[in-house]
Design goal:
disordered N terminus; globular; alpha/beta; 434 residues; 18% helix; 2 domains; 20 strands; Rossmann fold; single chain; 5-stranded mixed β-sheet; 9 helices; Immunoglobulin-like
Length: 434
Amino acid sequence: MVDRRRFIVGSGAVGALAVLGGTAGCTARTEGEAVSATAPAGGHVRGATAITKVYGDGQKLVAVAVEYDADITGSALSTSTFKVTGRTVTKVYANRSADLAERGRDGRYVIVEMSPDDKAAALWVTQQGGGTASGSSPTGTSSAAPGGGGPKVGDSTPGGTIVAAKATVTQTGTVTTTHGTRYPASGTKVTTSAVKNLIVDDFRQFTFTDPVTKQTLKCNLFVPKGYDHRKRYPLVLFMHDASVVNVATQGPLVQGLGAVCWASPEDQARHEAFVLAPEYDSVVIDDTYKPSPLFDTTAHLVRALTKTYSLDGKRLYATGQWPADQAKPLAKKKLWIVVSQEDDKSYSGENAITKVVKEQGTAVATAVWDGRSTGARFAADVRSLKAQKEPVNYAAFKTGTVVPKGSATSAHMATWHVAYTIPGIREWVMDQSL
């Protein structure tokens, strides 16, 4: 049996965020001849594609790409030109492809962006409005007292569901082609027939059957787009929490940013890396910290990938949380810990872990952050903590700063929603090696 400490801690420099964790689809596009300008506006629409994006609190339907039979000029478009049933339209522009853009370009697509704050935007839905009933933590442990109330090893009850991305759009104003032809407003409702999942679609799905444990895992793997077998790449392993147990294969990709943030174009431009996100059909580790055979299977999966791809054995990363009585080996590793002060169990647990680390002679840099900070403020916070130049960085969010007002999400899960949005932490992790 693979020792949990030896696998996770020994798998490379570990970015130990006290945080973790759509259905992939393809965009169907149809090209064709321009039709008569005298036809009704609905006749000029070739189709519509739903566009999704993953946020800290999960995947959301954020735009509809309406495809026309001719290039559309964006200068006359406004938020009143289109209506999306049950949604708040925030931005409308033309584009050459069914993609979001800071600035649109005249083209066959009209991008209708919608507020991610709309209730109907959410595609990843968990119990109690964002958290599982027990407030599950990394790989299955709960925020309740050890051994009580939380999900147990082997529990296969899904803690969340994935909603199909679909929207109905209506052209309520005039749309003008680049040749000056006007397509008048129409009452025709167009329902999306394709889905484009940003970043999520870049992951490959496969299954891995472990010849040792005989267990089978459904997996998501991101392979750098410019993969070159002559180079050596780091790998990030993301092990989801109990809320994603026994859902669709892509569940770990849509729960939050735990997997997809490492595969974003921005992160890949700085550090090309493989990203592995298994989908577990049952809880792997509970409050007893005694793993199921799926933990061994995960270790064997990583080893198998190192034989299939050119991976750097000194740069295999993982995220998670350890019990204090198993924390001594962490003193030899480089860690970045993030936790909320109001997450009673995890906060006390991380304090106990850092105490053990210090007792082993390893220095720990500490800071208390505001979870509501801007990106610029977080960047400054990261620089300040790094400036202490210690092997272990420990950032705690102030009580009351990670759970949105009126939200039922636990402080435990809300911490994940914030921590993975901080680029500086991910950058630091990628800079570490054995």
